[in-house]
Design goal:
The structure holds 2 protein chains of 2 kinds.
Chain A: E1 5-16, E2 19-31, E3 36-40, H1 47-55, E4 62-70, E5 73-74, H2 80-86, E6 91-94, H3 98-101, H4 108-118, H5 125-138, H6 144-147, H7 157-169, E7 175-179, H8 187-204, E8 207-212, H9 215-221, E9 224-229, E10 232-238, H10 239-244, H11 249-256
Parallel strand pairs in A: 3-8, 3-9, 6-7, 7-8
Antiparallel strand pairs in A: 1-2, 1-4, 4-5, 9-10
Chain B: H1 2-30, H2 34-39, H3 45-55, H4 61-74, E1 76-77, E2 83-84, H5 99-134, H6 139-153, H7 156-170, H8 186-220, H9 223-230, H10 235-263, H11 267-273, H12 278-287, H13 291-319, H14 321-326
Antiparallel strand pairs in B: 1-2
Classes of the chains: A alpha/beta, B mainly alpha.
Subcellular location (chain B): Cell membrane
Pfam families (chain B): BPD_transp_1, BPD_transp_1_N
Organism (chain B): Desertihabitans brevis
Amino acid sequence: MTALLDVRDLTVAFETPRGRTEVVRDVSFELAPGASLGIVGESGSGKSMTSLAVMDLLPPGATRRGSIRLAGTELTTLPPREMRKVRGARVAMIFQDPLSCLNPYYTVGLQISEAYRAHRPRATRREARRAAVEAMERVHIPHAAERVDHYPHQFSGGMRQRVMIAMALSGEPELLIADEPTTALDVTVQKQILDLIAEIRRDTGAGLVMITHDLAVVSEIADDVLVMQHGDVVEQGGAEQVFSRPRHPYTRRLLEAVPRIDDPLVGPGGAR
Amino acid sequence: MLRYMGVRLLGMVVVLFLVSLFTFVIFFVLSPDPAVQICGKNCTPERIDQIRGTLGLDQPFWTQFGQFLSGVVAGRTYADGQVCPAPCLGYSFQNSLPVWDMLVDRLPVSATVAVGAAVLWLLAGVAGGLLSALKEGTWWDRGAMVLALGGISVPNYVLALVLQYVLVVQLQVLPFPQAVDFADGPGQWFANYLMPWVVLSFLYASLYARLTRANVIDTLGENYVRTARAKGLPGWLVIRRHALRPALTPVATIFAMDFAGLLGGALITETVFGLNGIGKLAADSITQNDQPVIMAVTLLAAFFVIVGNIVVDLLYGWLDPRVRTAR
């Protein structure tokens, strides 16, 4: 069976006047249809750049090399016009900070319905609006029919992230990429958003790439894990295996860094 | 909203009061005796006293200021029986014309200059800035920004004189500008105002191009623009809807201020081209020390700036939903 996402030897580099910096080096992974993969690592490990490379949304100055296949289609050689049809419709993305990711000048309804219309050129405004309300109901935003006309700043952080998810759902994608979707949220809200993502995967059968520095999130949601450090993949495999028998020292350190409720208290000077 | 407008209008009255007080103090303290000036060459001390009495110049400062203010609000009757209906801004010391009529007479010229220049600079500035931002770092961008730097640093009377020399004297493609009514023929009217428009708009277009460029580059780096691209929106829609609207909101508010300022007269441009607008009136009245006229043009300019300010605030509330709900 063809993999949903097949990334081979992906390298992302920035060309600067002072030379070339590789932020992602020879990353390879595969994701089966409907499966989920967690990419973990600290800030600057290249995990976000990997996901942006898949979407062809790298910041200016960045170049990518290697192969990215979505259900057999090579994305790296796709002309921009064709790549646009992939974004949102086949691969959708949820970002970290939902406030800055939503345009403050437009209602959430408009922003969801434009995601709906982007890949349905014949859809009318009215249909798109109805679809936006339905998408908001699907992500459990209360009073969706009324909230559709509100602006992003009138929503709480968790509700904003639900709006982002509703937007991502509008294109009915086969693959969902979530880049730190819960980092900017309270712990209780984090749990709700993770549950929502799990629920949506159950309903739609979409594959998931979850990027996070939070190992608890990965252990809850991912089938496979990819551990990145300084742009390199240091360890990959089934989530169960990586977490129970980490082979790389970096993975071990990451796991040790997870605070546990029964840890002894350590003061600022290290005194117990 | 009604309360908000009430507060703003009250603020406007207070500022206008302070501006007139300030201007009045300057003239009361610094200016040479207007009576001597009005009286002219063949003057007797009796005649000077008579003029002082008629205009109320022999009264103490607060009485004179009070008479001026009540004249603006309710009209004024001078000691010699002459009636000046409200809004009375007094009579010019130079030609004895009612100052209000002079303003009404000159305002259309300044408005014509301001509107024409505004259309030009908005088109050129915003389009140029947007193109520069989208082609950031290219030769087009650099060229446009060098031109804009020129627009900001070359004084507009220099540009005016160069243009006049080239287009009027050498090539003779344009007439020497003078205030022409639209009724005199649209072609002639247009040819007359073209040079002032270009000269005045060049400075503003440069400022607006730089501002638009910086704002568009900033917004293109925003996360919500990345979201818009991630949705698969076509490039032009990403730019038009998600980058341009936030980038142009501050431009729109600055525009309201600049335009309001220009209604109070483009002093240099009008003077260089000999257009009889408010700006030239201001320049002339200052050289002739014509106190009532200076007072009036100062107040008029202040009035437009304050109104512009209120318009900006309302505009911001209308353009930015975050401000709208906060109010």
